[in-house]
Amino acid sequence: MLVLVTGGLVATFGPLLAIACDTCQDGVRTPHFENALILVAWLGVPLTTLLTVAGIFLPRGGAKAGGIGLGVLTVLMVTLLALGQ
Length: 85
Prior knowledge:
Blueprint: H1 2-19, H2 34-56, H3 62-84
């Protein structure tokens, strides 16, 4: 459940936090790497979440797969924030 919740939060709030701008007039900035941001948010995060959930149900190494998946989701969140700057 933790992987699904984390994947949902990264997919939902990652792009929003990446384009948020306090000093912009409308509150939204246009990122330089817009296509890469969309690719990571729409393909990278759901695919990572799906593969992690599938890996958890393997007979061996389920907890290890879950930990690696959470780590990859964290890296993807940092990547989304970096692409938005």
